[in-house]
Amino acid sequence: MSKTLFEKIWDSHLVKEENGRSLLYVDRHLVHEVTSPQAFDGLRMNKRKVRRADLTFATMDHNVPTNDRSLPIVDQTSSIQIQTLEKNCKEFGIPLFDIHSPNQGIVHVIGPELGITLPGSTIVCGDSHTSTHGAFGALAFGIGTSDVEHVLATQCIWMQKSKTFEIKIDGKRKNPHAVTAKDIILSIIKKIGTAGANGTVIEYRGETISELTMEQRMTICNMSIEAGARAGLIAPDEKTFQYLRGRRYAPQNYDEYVEYWKENLKTDSNAKFDKSFTLVADNILPQVSWGTNPAMTVDVTGNVPFPEEYANGNVEEEKAAVKALQYMDLKPGIPVTDIYIDRVFIGSCTNSRLEDLIEASKVVKGNKVSSKVRAMVVPGSQLVKKNAEELGLDRIFKDAGFEWRESGCSMCLGMNPDILAAGERCASTSNRNFEGRQGAGGRTHLVSPVMAAAAAIWGHFVDVRELDLN
Amino acid sequence: MKGSVIKYQKDNIDTDVILPGPYLKIHDYNELAKHAMEGLDKDFHKKVKPGDFIVAGKNFGCGSSREHAPIALSYSGIKAVLAISFARIFYRNAVDGAFLLPIEIDENAYSDISEGDLLEIDTKKNEIQNITKNKIYKIKPFPELIGKIIEAGGLFNYKP
Predict the structure, then answer these.
(1) B interface mutation test: which of A158, A189, A224 has the most B CBs within 10 A?
(2) How far is CA A289 from the centre of its chain?
(3) Rounded to whole angstroms, how far apart are CA atoms A461 and A291?
């Protein structure tokens, strides 16, 4: 029978299935400080062990400060959460990349970087952006704390099989340095909506996807959750195998694995998806979000929409747009390029990898951050930071007036010292522009790293297609 | 199960407004409850009574995987959220710890139910009785696995 990639990975991990209730084996479990403490408490309370500590990997990313790591952590509750993870990992024998480790970083950056993420594997993590790992052809789910505990105890998870959703991206972007993977995924979410992929596993396919680098594919899969998907997948190819070769946790007999992956990890030509959507990449432009969910996005050449124009007859959507504009303090009809910003954040599990920083640095080089803007670059991991510094990127950013910080989730989610003040407006390379996401009353515009870098220099959004990015 | 309604006429109520990021560092569930819905409704903590239901639009609970979101609602007294649809991680988290019932209603029920209405939910018959308005609405049955987890009283009591 013909199968999709999702069905193949699913079937090969089924431990048990009964009336649509499926018990799935988990190959890799990633753990961080925020969604794990109660899970470990539960294990202790029930006198359970971690079933496969060797398949479990932990790091601290969500609430670690991104300033000088030799200083103590000021916030007491953060400090306790970080110490709790250290204590739990020690007690249960789980490898931990702690705040002083050269491998510390955002969990979805270090997984692939260390070769923990492998094609055809199942991965879970108590974080919704676990979908990122799908870029390697891994079936990767974000889960809550109860499921974290269940996986720690059993290395398995109960699931209902998802529907399959094919998203095909065809065509060629005219300027791939200016029109990035971020603009592709924002364009998709704009079209299908924040619940457009609800309950499905997306497989991204088509010539545009094949052309993307691994880091760009991660940006796409990362934001699958913003369209409501359970996971996002891209079939592995030579780029995938090349990326993972020689990484710390990649298998020893790597070539045998590659043979198996090549043979088994693609959707059969006559397999059927439950749902399909096609995007033509030829005319995609740089995107800027104007509202309070990631579907509220327009082209950089466009205007902030009028609610009725955005809603297109849908009363609820119109009300949502009115509220969003109020929260964002934006007037409908103004050109996107007339939106002035106070802060710039280049970072997060969506856009904090080496390539993101290289691309952003091209805009920054030889320029100065606008006097009205505070801008920061937060590399996704210590390894990204080190590699970037070897290329001299830190100097380019610092010379321009950017802060060059230590790795972590930082200003993506407002639970560490990097937050927006109420009313501040930020060009951010992160994934969510929800109300209060980056700090109570903060206003987020989601953009690509090059768009964020350009906004830092000019103080407002600019069409990066007009810049020399080669 | 009987309770009165707190209604939010809104789609895409996300986990960042249900329980804002800064509070994810709190370990005590009763403390978390004090900040439930803070990002959307500062007065929620004052108006919620034990046994209340939330009624909302599409894609309730979208965003983060934080189980803190259903926990905060549950510990503030909410027994069920009635929405046109749910984001899947929230949906699962709500039943895993037996925190609250995530109930899918149709557009008609959503527009018909008002703030303060007294409802009685019957998950055996898959219907809701609006006692205030003397009406009956159908609810979407739980998927097999979710139904079994609810029946068991949470993931850790579930025996296949």
Answers:
(1) A158
(2) 16
(3) 15
DSSP string covering A36-104: SHHHHHHHHHTT---TTGGGEEEE--SS---S-TTSPP--HHHHHHHHHHHHHHHHHT--EE-TTSTT-
ipTM: 0.97
pLDDT digits (tens, 9 = 90+) for A175-206: 999 999 999 999 999 999 999 999 999 999 99
Interface residue A145 vs chain B (CB under 8 A): yes
Domain B2-157, classified CATH 3.40.50.2300, yes or no: no
The 8-class DSSP code of residue B27 comes to: -
Which residue of chain A comes nearest to B23, CA vs CA? A415
The answer to whether A109 and A349 have CB atoms below 8 angstroms apart is yes
Paired sense of beta strands A56-59 and A200-205, if any: unpaired
Interface list for A 198-237 with B (CB within 8 A): 198-199, 225, 228, 230
Cβ contact, residue pair A144, B25, below 8 Å? no
Cα A442 to Cα A183, A343, A450, B22: the distances in Å are 22, 10, 22, 13
Q: Which residues of chain A have pLDDT under 50?
A: none
> Quick one: tokens of A96?
């931990």
Compare all CA atoms of chain A with the CA of B25 and give the residue at the minimum distance.
A77
- Flag whether residue A147 sits within 8 Å of chain B, measured between CB atoms: yes
CA A129 to CA A137: how far, in whole Å? 15
If you ran DSSP here, which 8-state letter would residue A162 be given?
Answer: P
Task: State in Å, rounded, how far the first CA of chain B is from the last one.
Answer: 26
Contact A240, A137 (CB under 8 A): yes
pLDDT (tens digit per residue) in A128-153: 999 999 999 999 999 999 999 999 99
Q: Where are the domains of chain B?
A: 2-157
Residues facing residue B5 across a β-bridge? B53
